[in-house]
C-alpha cells in the first residue's frame, strides 16, 4: 500500500473547494499507484467546513476514511503555530472538525495557537501529529523547544523542500534532527496540484485501515520512504502549473511558488 501523508485538496487557501478539481487530484494519485492519502488542508483555508460537506455528499465514509475514486482519504488538517511552523493532524472526520472548531479563535497570523497548547488540545484524542517541513526556511520547526517536538509522532520529509534544497542536502539536515528527537520520518508530497503526486511516498508493509493502524505502523517502522527519480520534474511542473492557474484566477503567487520558480 502506498500512502501520501501531506496533501491538499484545493489549489490555494483563497480558492473554493471544487469537487471536480479534487477528483482530478485523486485520479492522478491513483495513476501513481497511491492507494491512500491524508487530506491535510490548511486549517485557515477559505470555507474549511465546505470540504468535508462536499466529501460527505460525494463519497462513502466508514468512520476512518472516505473511499474516493479508488483512494482512501484520511481526514486531516495543517495547523499554523505561534512559534512559526506547521503541524499536520490526521484523525477521523469527527475529531478533525471538532479540533477545527476549537481553533476558530486562532485563525489569524497575529494569533496562531501556541505549540504547547495545540499539543495539549490533541494529545487526548486519536490524532496522528506530524511536524511539517521542519527545515523550510519560512516555516521551520527546528528552532522550537526539543521537549515539545518530542511529543510529535513523526516528521515530514516534504517533496517541496527536497526539490528546493536538494535531496542529499535536505536529508543531511532532517535525518540527524529526527534521530535527535527520537522520531520517525514519513513522506508527504505537499501536493496542491496533481502533477506533484508520486514525488515522495510511503510504501506500507501492510494495508492500513485507520489512524490507529497507521500510527502503529509508523512506530514499528513497518514502511519505507521512497523518493521518485523524477521528483525535481514533478515538483517544478506542479509549482509552475499552480502558479499559472492562480494567475488565471487573479491570485498572486505565494512565497514558496515565487521563490521556487525564480531560483530554478
Straight-line N-to-C gap: 33 Å
Strand content: 15-25%
Largest sheet: 11 strands, mixed
Q: What spatial form do the alpha-carbon principal axes imply? A: globular
Q: What's the SSE pattern?
A: EHEHEEEEHHEHEHHEEHEHH
Radius of gyration: 17 Å
Quantity of strands, as a count: 11
Level of helix content? Answer: 25-40%
Instruction: Quote the average pLDDT.
Output: 94
Keywords:
single chain; 264 residues; alpha/beta; 11-stranded mixed sheet; 10 helices; 11 strands; globular; disordered C terminus; Pol/histidinol_Pase-like; PHP domain-containing protein; PHP_domain; PHP_dom
In short:
The chain is built from 10 helices and 11 strands.
Commentary on this structure:
The protein is α/β, with parallel strands linked by helices and 264 residues long. 39% of the residues lie in helices and 20% in strands. The chain contains ten helices and eleven strands. It has helices at 19-31, 48-58, 93-102, 115-122, 146-149, 159-165, 167-181, 211-220, 231-248, 255-262; strands at residues 2-7, 36-39, 60-61, 66-68, 71-80, 86-90, 128-131, 154-158, 185-188, 200-204, 223-227. Strands 1, 2, 3, 4, 5, 6, 7, 8, 9, 10 and 11 form an eleven-stranded mixed sheet that branches. Helix 6 crosses helix 7, helix 6 (159-165) packs across helix 9 and helix 9 crosses helix 10. The protein is globular and about 40 Å long. The chain starts with a strand and ends with a helix.
Amino acid at each position: 500500500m502506498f500512502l501520501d501523508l501531506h496533501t491538499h485538496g484545493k489549489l490555494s487557501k483563497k480558492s473554493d473547494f471544487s469537487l471536480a478539481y479534487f477528483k482530478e487530484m485523486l485520479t492522478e494519485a491513483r495513476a501513481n499507484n497511491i492507494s491512500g492519502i491524508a487530506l491535510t488542508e490548511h486549517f485557515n483555508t477559505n470555507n474549511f467546513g465546505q470540504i468535508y460537506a462536499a466529501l460527505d455528499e460525494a463519497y462513502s465514509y466508514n468512520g476512518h476514511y472516505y473511499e474516493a475514486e479508488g483512494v482512501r482519504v484520511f481526514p486531516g488538517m495543517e495547523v499554523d503555530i505561534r512559534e512559526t511552523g506547521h503541524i499536520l493532524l490526521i484523525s477521523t472526520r469527527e475529531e478533525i472538525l471538532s479540533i477545527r472548531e476549537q481553533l476558530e479563535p486562532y485563525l489569524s497570523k497575529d494569533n496562531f495557537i501556541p505549540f504547547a497548547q495545540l499539543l495539549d488540545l490533541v494529545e487526548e484524542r486519536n490524532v496522528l501529529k506530524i511536524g511539517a517541513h521542519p527545515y523550510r526556511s519560512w516555516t521551520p520547526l527546528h528552532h522550537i523547544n526539543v521537549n515539545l517536538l518530542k511529543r510529535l509522532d513523526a516528521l515530514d520529509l516534504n517533496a517541496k523542500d527536497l526539490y528546493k534544497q536538494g535531496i542529499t542536502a535536505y536529508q543531511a539536515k532532517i535525518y540527524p534532527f529526527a534521530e535527535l528527537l527520537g522520531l520517525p520520518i514519513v513522506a508527504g508530497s505537499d501536493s496542491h496540484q496533481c502533477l506533484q503526486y508520486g514525488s515522495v511516498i510511503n510504501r506500507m508493509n501492510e494495508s492500513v485501515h485507520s489512524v490507529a493502524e497507521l500510527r502503529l505502523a509508523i512506530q514499528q517502522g513497518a514502511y519505507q520512504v521512497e523518493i521518485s527519480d523524477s521528483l525535481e520534474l514533478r515538483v517544478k511542473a506542479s509549482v509552475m502549473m499552480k502558479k499559472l492557474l492562480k494567475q488565471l484566477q487573479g491570485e498572486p503567487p505565494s512565497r514558496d511558488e515565487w521563490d521556487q520558480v525564480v531560483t530554478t
